[in-house]
Backbone:
């Protein structure tokens, strides 16, 4: 049992933190090609892949470390979608992710469908003779992707296909947390098969790792939001004294701190179990807890800031918007509560 | 004790319903139902319709052109208009300035300004908050110095809602620095078209623009625009805050929000069932509905006491607090209900522009309303301030 | 719409409040024959029955008024069981309740059975040829009852029987809130039929009114607990000043006050609807809300009192124990949450 | 990073399990599982068994007859003994006084008192709290005046847990009224059999007697029973409070309580299903289990840091607070789970006496445990005090 970072991990963390502090010295709320190239160059994308795929990491601990740091600066880069979700699927199927690791190729996973909500198996897109027909909804970072990975049914089997983004109809719009998503229409669109057999378990596994990434990002966001709020409580004066001297706000901050510590432990639990036999129970527990704590932290941070916390211009707004969106990918608190009950309580 | 409305009250409710069925333009109620922002012209159109019926000033006495309704009638009107998705009445002239002028203004001020509020000739906004003086209003700094028959105003106001539409602003300004901070504040009416007034929009968390900063640089204001006595503005402001707190519970908004939430939860699929059949989601709806049923009755108890002539006391703090908690919970559940469709951030789509998400219409405003309504527990005296008021007045702690 | 008490109700309230202040000047934690006789004499039992049954009240408002006052002093008298529940059933069946109103006869309703939890229709006790066989559990105030009312199945029908307490086997024990309950064994025990036809609706109606009584009592308990706690906050000093000057406790008291106000409105809602068509929805809503608020008030009151709040000797202990038991009769918060969902949400 | 125990740690866990299987009397574990009160003899029996194995003083260094375990080993021992429903170790001598004597006591005091703790010759209790000095310990009044080679003690202590079994008490007493309130406090060991000591039991909310008032009237205490320096007792008390806070999270108790709750929820019928199949009840269990999974890891992080030599800091306040919230929620759910069987108030039944309720055995302690464990958030520094500590030390507010 060891909760210390290894020397390599510590180096990655230090380097990444320094790089991000610099890159986000002026806050960036939209993805940036420069930052993407910078992340690739310092090996951050490679840290998400195991050696056999050409990376130098790929464990749950690596994912947690990288995404907590990205969360701290509110980075909107498509690293989760490209590196963990789509890249993870390609690597698991034995595909080549060299270009992904090098930062040359960005991927997006077109999986969820209108009305499918959070069910990872609800796919109605059909494939016949290597051509796909169907609709995909809210595909994150679809417009900036060099290649789409699309899930579709071939008979009963859930299968994965590489599709050229230029070959589909895209309706794009901004996302609440930055970047663009798109609704996608496939109409007899050609695709190239990725992997063999049924991909359900591969998708569930990739989503479990992406959930870890998202939860770790949420942890970073919460840490940064907490720091901003603490600073604000020390500087802002009302009724003649810093509002941080009011006992009510002190106790509410103490409660936030405790809950963020819970969130950290939940991320640790998932990081240590994401590739193990107890994966599903930990995915459910961690995503549920993170969703609960994220709502509390976002709402309390705005409330304690008062008016300034409601403005777009202030740094908090972007962080809070990203944090509030965590509950809307890969299943929300209630979805995972029900899963946890099935797996652990009932 | 009984919970039934009188026959007269029931007849009045029927009259309001018929009026709304006949006169509320579908174009406006559709926008309200869909959570779309209303334009200045939309507001003006609805105000004019109400004014033509004599129902614009529900809280004014008849002598000033108001309806003379009691608290229960106002409550019924509020319930019915909210349920019909009518635009809310823009409150600054009608609910805020009007009562202050009626109580503290001169005859000349009443004769001049009140009819212009009803006719829509003036659009008022409120100049209370300043950077550094939010919940702690007494510490405000915006200054007015007497210069013969004018005041010269310098300083800044903020959180001025819909200031971009307004031609007039009523302000709390500092006219003296002596005594306690609450002393030395005056209540001044300022023409926004005066030289030296500048309005800068503030973009909010939800991407919308509804509040503004207002800057004053050597703005000259005729001394006749002082309401009541110099340095007594704090008294008028407190009176106004009390008036602002009628309907502070927002029961109508909460009911409309709850109905909309249930519609969404019936429409959304969650696996093989409707979302509303998810017991955990249903439990969250049930809890907030049960809370709302109780709060609606608390509200009626206060309304009923007000109609019997009792002044609203600290109960309004309780209603404000519980009301915001309930509305914010409904907003959070609505955001949860739309699932992944909460992710699109579609300001243009809400205005009817290009490339909306393929998601259902009801999903579009969910995230923005959730974010925007975080303000409910901040403005008009934050919930923290309300708790302190309750502790002081009701518990004598 | 009118939230003012009528003159008669005001008189009853004033008289009852004065009487109870006197009777409980030294707190009584167990039922007292003297108090019972006093209540009967001033017409409090009669206030629970309509004129046609020989009373002079019997509306939801009357029940709410009486039980809120009893709650304020933590009275453990069996008025709910005798007057509202059993007496209500007898009166509804056209039986004679004169002796009940006069205070001469105390009744207990032997209805719930082992394993039946809160389901009012789960009755396995059988009746054959007017003789009852079965088991009843946690029958409140059974040992002090002059007559038992027992529910039993005759064929499919749920029926009610008057049974002599001396004819049954009783295992009695103290209740957490004061008084005694008993588990009862009926073994070919003779009974006299009360009413005709199936009694299910009569039982549900009597339980609805008893639920109102219990909720109103809880409201009175909470008012008294709040007053005790407020007083304590003003007197008790720590760190050199009254603990009521600490902002954290002020805000928590404000939240309690709001929730108690919610509880009051919930009781009003049920009082106005307990005999009407929307009864079941209001029973569910009110009992659920009261259960939630009662837990909050009990736990916060103990916490704010600190050590003294943990002692049996101090007045709070008895009030808190009674309040905690409210959730264990006629269905708890979760039972009524589920009922509310069925009736109002789904 | 990794979450696995080392092979040595796994072997140790196995050793503890085997010991418990062989040595823990079923009579004792049955009582603990059923929530029954343990007698003095029960405690002494279990202490003697542990002492025979050399495992009684898990937090003492070997030189004083302790095990010399590190924090992880202590954690494993705690997990296994709790899971096996072993009696908890009575902490006053072993976990509280022991470390203080080892750190601040004289050689003579160590040689005399420590072996008697291990052998069970002395049963210690704690004299800290006073009426009016609970969370605010520094304001204590119980007074010790030096009279040649004795102190003369007058005053009162309260909340003295299991004082009815004790022959010795360690007290904080006021030896000076000068300076700040924390100054002028001394740490004194008092023989309970001295003339002038009176113990009065306090019945608690749950009907049980586990705490006492202790009164001192001109009690003469040999000066050699002063630990450390006069007027420095506050330092020793703070050291002790830190030590008391190891295992403050109560993860073992919470786990045992959760398992018991699930067993009950599987056994209880709720309509046509087991209670655990009621989605709303299951949700409440799930939420507390999820919280507990996270807290257990927070606890391990602190344990692991402690094993690596880091002193426990304000994290112990976080663990105390979250730990009590979780345990109290489990207690509340257990009370809810037993339904109407929560109503019987059976102090005698718990001791095995006559006329128990016909309800299942598991129902009997539910209400009493719920009521009794309200103390968790009050004693050892109330949760309010913990929040203030966290705000001060970790947020620097």
Residues:
């Amino acid at each position: 049992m060891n909760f210390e970072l290894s020397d390599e991990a510590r180096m990655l963390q230090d380097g990444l933190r320094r790089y991000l502090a610099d890159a986000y010295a002026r806050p960036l709320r939209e993805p940036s090609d420069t930052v993407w190239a910078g992340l690739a160059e310092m090996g951050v994308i490679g840290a998400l892949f195991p050696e056999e795929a050409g990376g130098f990491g790929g464990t749950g601990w690596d994912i947690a470390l990288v995404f907590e740091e990205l969360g701290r600066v509110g980075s909107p880069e498509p690293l989760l979608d490209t590196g963990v979700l789509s890249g993870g699927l390609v690597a698991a199927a034995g595909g080549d992710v060299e270009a992904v690791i090098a930062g040359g190729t960005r991927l997006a996973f077109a999986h969820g469908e209108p009305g499918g909500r959070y069910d990872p198996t609800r796919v109605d897109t059909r494939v016949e003779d290597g051509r796909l027909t169907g609709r995909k909804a809210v595909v994150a970072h679809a417009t900036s992707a060099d290649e789409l990975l699309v899930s579709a049914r071939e008979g009963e089997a859930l299968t994965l296909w590489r599709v050229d983004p230029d070959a589909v109809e895209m309706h794009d719009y901004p996302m609440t947390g930055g970047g663009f998503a798109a609704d996608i229409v496939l109409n007899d669109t050609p695709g190239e098969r990725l992997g063999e057999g049924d991909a359900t378990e591969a998708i569930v596994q990739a989503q479990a790792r992406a959930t870890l990434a998202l939860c770790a990002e949420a942890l970073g966001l919460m840490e940064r939001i907490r720091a901003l709020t603490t600073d604000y409580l020390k500087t802002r004066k009302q009724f003649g004294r810093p509002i941080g001297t009011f006992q009510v706000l002190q106790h509410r901050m103490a409660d936030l701190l405790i809950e963020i510590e819970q969130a950290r432990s939940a991320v640790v639990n998932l990081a240590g179990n994401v590739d193990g036999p107890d994966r599903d129970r930990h995915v459910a527990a961690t995503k549920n807890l993170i969703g609960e704590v994220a709502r509390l932290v976002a709402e309390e941070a705005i409330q304690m800031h008062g008016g300034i916390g409601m403005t777009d211009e202030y740094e908090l707004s972007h962080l809070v918007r990203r944090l509030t969106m965590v509950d809307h990918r890969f299943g929300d608190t209630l979805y995972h509560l029900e899963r946890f009950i099935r797996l652990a309580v009932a | 004790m009984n919970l039934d409305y009188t026959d007269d009250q029931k007849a009045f409710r029927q009259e309001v319903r018929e009026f709304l069925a006949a006169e509320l333009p579908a174009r406006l109620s559709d926008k309200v139902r869909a959570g779309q922002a209303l334009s200045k012209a939309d507001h003006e159109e609805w105000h004019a319709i109400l004014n033509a019926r004599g129902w614009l000033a529900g809280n004014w006495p008849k002598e000033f052109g108001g309806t003379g309704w009691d608290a229960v009638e106002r409550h019924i009107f509020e319930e019915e208009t909210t349920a019909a998705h009518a635009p809310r009445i823009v409150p600054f002239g009608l609910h805020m300035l009007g009562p202050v002028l009626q109580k503290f203004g001169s005859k000349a001020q009443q004769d001049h300004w009140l009819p212009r509020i009803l006719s829509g000739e003036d659009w008022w906004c409120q100049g209370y908050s300043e950077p550094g003086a939010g919940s702690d209003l007494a510490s405000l700094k915006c200054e007015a110095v007497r210069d013969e028959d004018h005041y010269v105003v310098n300083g800044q106001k903020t959180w001025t809602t819909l200031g971009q539409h307004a031609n007039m602003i009523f302000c709390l300004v500092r006219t003296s620095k002596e005594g306690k901070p609450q002393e030395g504040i005056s209540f001044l009416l300022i023409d926004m078209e005066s030289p030296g007034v500048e309005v800068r929009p503030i973009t909010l968390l939800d991407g919308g623009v509804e509040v503004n900063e207002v800057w004053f640089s050597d703005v000259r204001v005729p001394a006749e625009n002082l309401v009541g006595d110099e340095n007594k503005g704090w008294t008028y402001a407190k009176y106004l805050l009390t008036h602002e707190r009628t309907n502070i519970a927002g029961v109508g908004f909460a009911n409309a929000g709850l109905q909309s939430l249930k519609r969404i939860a019936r429409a959304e699929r969650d696996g093989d069932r409707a979302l509303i059949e998810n017991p955990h989601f249903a439990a969250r709806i049930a809890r907030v509905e049960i809370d709302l049923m109780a709060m609606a009755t608390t509200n009626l108890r206060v309304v009923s006491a007000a109609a019997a002539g009792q002044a609203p006391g600290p109960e309004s703090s309780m209603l404000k607090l519980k009301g915001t908690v309930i509305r914010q919970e409904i907003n959070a559940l609505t955001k949860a209900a739309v699932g992944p469709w909460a992710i699109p951030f579609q300001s243009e789509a809400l205005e009817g522009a290009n490339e909306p998400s393929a998601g259902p219409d009801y999903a579009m405003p969910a995230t923005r309303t959730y974010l925007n309504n975080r303000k409910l527990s901040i403005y008009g005296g934050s919930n923290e301030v309300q708790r302190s008021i309750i502790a002081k007045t009701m518990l004598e702690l």
Q: What stands out?
A: The mean pLDDT of chain C is 96.
